[in-house]
Specification:
197 residues; mainly alpha; three-stranded mixed beta sheet
Length: 197
């Protein structure tokens, strides 16, 4: 996979913040919290993948949500393909805000079912990170406030929440989205300034 320049109306940042080098399981790199503030370290976008044809012939894209994540999880964990990050940003990914409403393609309940269906492809730590970080942020951003407690319960039932994951979850559901966006913009600006030095 390659680095991506992610451009929003508020910022432009290189992701992933920490390229994947295989030191931890891919699923934990993708979904676990590695810092108290800011994003998780992992970022994977379909156009940033460079995949051998044999992987697509054997696995292909799943006919459901999160297909790029599932493809890489199955390739790295079932077929033992190595995954490395090309350090140059070869992809520009434009992300509009605000995000689409819940009438869009994916619902949080389907994502919970997706994570459970992966079984051992997700470690317990990655499973809880997905629910408490990515999925909570997505559900809260779409106004699905009824997801808060079921996501927390599922994280304890199927995962192994860390303090950083619980901190992220509490921040997501208690700090207004606009404030979080401003904080994230300041963190992105600080990271961009450090990269220019």
């Amino acid at each position: 996979m390659t680095m991506s320049r992610v451009v929003t109306p508020h910022s432009s940042v290189l992701l992933p913040e920490r390229p994947y080098h295989g030191a931890v399981p891919f699923d934990e790199w993708l979904f676990d919290r590695h810092t108290w503030l800011g994003r998780g370290a992992g970022f994977l976008q379909t156009s940033s993948l460079l995949v051998p044809r044999a992987v697509f012939e054997h696995i292909g894209f799943a006919a459901r949500q999160h297909e790029e994540w599932e493809l890489v999880l199955r390739a790295t964990k079932q077929l033992n393909y190595p995954l490395l990050t090309v350090p140059q940003p070869l992809v520009v990914h434009y992300r509009d805000e605000p995000r689409p409403s819940l009438s869009g393609q994916y619902r949080w309940q389907q994502s919970v079912t997706w994570a459970q269906s992966l079984g051992s492809l997700l470690t317990r730590r990655a499973h809880s990170g997905f629910l408490l970080g990515y999925l909570s942020r997505d559900a809260q951003g779409k106004g699905a406030y009824r997801a808060a407690l079921p996501l927390l319960a599922a994280a304890f039932r199927h995962g192994s929440p860390t303090l950083r994951q619980l901190f992220a979850y509490a921040s997501i559901w208690s700090v207004p989205r606009g404030w979080r966006r401003q904080i994230r913009g300041l963190l992105d600006k600080g990271m961009a300034d450090r990269l220019r030095q």
